[in-house]
Amino acid sequence: MDQRGYGGPLRYVQGPGVLGDLGRYAASLSDKALLLMDGFVEAKYGAMLGASLAAAGVTSTALRFAGESTDAEVERCVNVGREAAVGVVIGVGGGKTLDTAKITARNLGARIMTVPTIASTDSPTSAIGVIYTEHGVYDRVERCGRNPDVVLVDSQVIVQAPVRFLAAGMGDALSTWFEARSNLESRSRNYIGDGYAPTIAGAEIARACHATLMRDGRAAYIAAKAGRLTEAVENIIEANTLLSGLGFENCGVSGAHGIHDALTVLEPTHGFFHGEKVAFGIICLLVLENRPLEEIEDTIRFCADIGLPVRLSDLGLENISDDDLLSVGNAAMVPTSVIHSVPRPLSAMKIAHAISAADAMAQALLHRKAA
């Protein structure tokens, strides 16, 4: 029998106004903190966050995130954290800020808090971080050895962000069950420790993530676009952050993320969010696995309804050549790619053809819808 493994953050707290509780949660971890923030976070919330920490007896060293999750940025943060002898690293902002904070905490041997200000990825709860080159090209995944001690999600802050971020998070979350299914069928290992068979709990969380998106995703998109915090929006913030984070880490990712990573070799895609590229990758994955046409078209409709890319032209790739497609296929086939969890024999050419076919299916469906 396979050994099973499950992991997740120690605490997950979500709701309007919880950003003000930062100091209380940080104080339970250390009295010295490195506070790594996105630029806009520092400008809007930096003083309030520093005051919350100080009121709880935590000395903080504030640092503005440089904008890309690179080896050099991690090294810079580690050096500042080591100089200040911090015991906890607090990342506040988007996914790359949180990834940098997690890897920094690992390298310092410190505790970790993640405080997402957008619900655009499932990074906040996981024990992994992604490293990119300075030009934004995917490099590798780093395992951090432990999940965050506290994930603090202020839904009022998140709903104030442009709705595109929430939609991108739904694109990332939508991959959770589809990729979990790939891993279950290929009997691949999850991302807990050195890898285990998924637990029933992990698989059911991935299913619940998909069910929540299908039930509340469209309503949440409309409400959030109007800046309103409804129960549907709260549910989608949880799906994007907690359910998707637990689902992918405990079950694994596959072709949607593999194609996302490979698409980063094409410069026009760099202006799009992680979850936007993953959304298109989902359609490609379903084509690769020859899933029922009804499932593929339902997925295209859902993504299109919330403004996610479903065609190559939606990603700035309307003039993509066959050579470009093959270069994406080759990038996806590197031995370390997560695409190898797909339960089908793969080749660079098969991936290139699946991408082109996914684009054609979306074009045909949207054309029928418009007619």
How would you summarize what this structure contains?
This protein is of the alpha/beta class and 371 residues long. It contains 13 helices and 10 strands. The protein has a 6-stranded parallel β-sheet with strand order 2-9-6-5-3-4, sandwiched between helices. Strands 1-10 form a two-stranded parallel sheet.
Q: Count of helices? A: 13
Q: What amount of the residues lies in strands?
A: 5-15%
What gyration radius follows from the Cα positions, in whole Å?
20 Å
- What are the segments in which pLDDT stays under 50 over at least 5 consecutive residues? none
Detailed description of the structure:
This protein has helices at about 20-25, 40-55, 70-85, 95-110, 155-160, 165-185, 200-225, 230-250, 255-265, 275-290, 295-305, 320-330, 350-370, and strands at about 5, 10-15, 30-35, 60-65, 90-95, 110-115, 130, 140-145, 150-155, 195-200. By secondary structure, the protein is α/β, with parallel strands linked by helices. The protein folds into two domains: about 5-160, Rossmann fold (3-Layer(aba) Sandwich); about 165-370, Dehydroquinate synthase-like, alpha domain. The longest helix has 26 residues, at about 200-225. The radius of gyration is 20 Å and the shape is globular.
